[in-house]
Amino acid sequence: MKLVALTCSFCGYAATDLAGLQGMKYSSDVTIIRLPCTGRLDVKHVLQAVRMGADGVLVVGCLEGNCNYQYGNLEARKRVEQAKGIMKEIGLEPERVEMVNLASNQPWRFVQAVEDMYVKVERMGPSPLNKVRR
Amino acid sequence: MIIAEQKPIPRIVEMLEGHKSMLVVGCRSCVAICLAGGEKEVSILSEALRIESDLKGNGWQVDEVTLERACEKEWVGEMREKVSGHDAIISLACGVGAQVMQELYPDVRVLPGLDTSNMGAPEEQGIYLEKCGGCGDCVLHLTGGICPIARCSKSLLNGPCGGSQNGKCEIDPDVPCGWDQIYHSLERIGRLDLMEVPIPPKDWRRSRSGGPRKIVRKEAVLTPEEKSARGAR
Question: What does the alpha-carbon distance between residue B129 and residue B138 come to, in Å, rounded to a whole number?
Fold first, then answer.
């Protein structure tokens, strides 16, 4: 399974860092990409990750009300919903894209989110795109 | 500005049957403002089509470009190199832009990726409202700056009708009555007397009933000699 985590540098990315420092274990199948803020997320980024082979995409933003740029995480959630809609339109499971909100000092939440996503994606199986390419 | 919205992706995919190489073309003018066909929407649709192609094994080549203004030949002409080698253009410009593209690239099939809706304005972020009926005979000076053609569901010139209830139109309780808005606008500017002025029947030949409309500004039209001297089309 290939997972991509698009993380805000203020919370999600800092939480992954802390998870590493604390020696927490999570799936090694996740590729972490740092965004300046999830407000930078574009629907295209999600679709591109899927096209390039991700079985699941996790967007990790700050807790609602805690965005360093005020509304970035709220905008990101709307874009994640838009991406889900497009996934559905082209015949891919929208559940392959999810967003979670957490704080930088909550590495366990990041670990949990990755594990939850992994279990969900494993249950769905590889992305239909990856099945076609095999 | 022109308001449009994107067609559902499955409908765009249907139109693409038989094509192998397509150029998705956006426009940075009106349709970018109404978030239907700007650079961002072009990149999202292109990505979705690439996934669709990979899923179905269509082998599509999907490229993208966004023009400054797709309704002017000068800008549309600039993408000639990009168009070369493609057998279809998916236009994310309005219907006008799509037609200009077809005119300039007659050998390539132009497919509309948008449904062009109306002449309107953003009410707030993400909400666009029709404002002008394009009747060719403007009466905004008599109606408090509110277009009775576009804003009244029945396009009444001397309203309101009996379906106006509590400021709302009978077609939908969420739609404001155009003539209620006209009344209140005239009240605000102290010209309620205009409600008493009957507006005569319009000459609808100046609207869509007279066939395609053409406006000629003689002072701007170039003579054949001027055209050739300036290299203009």
Answer: 18
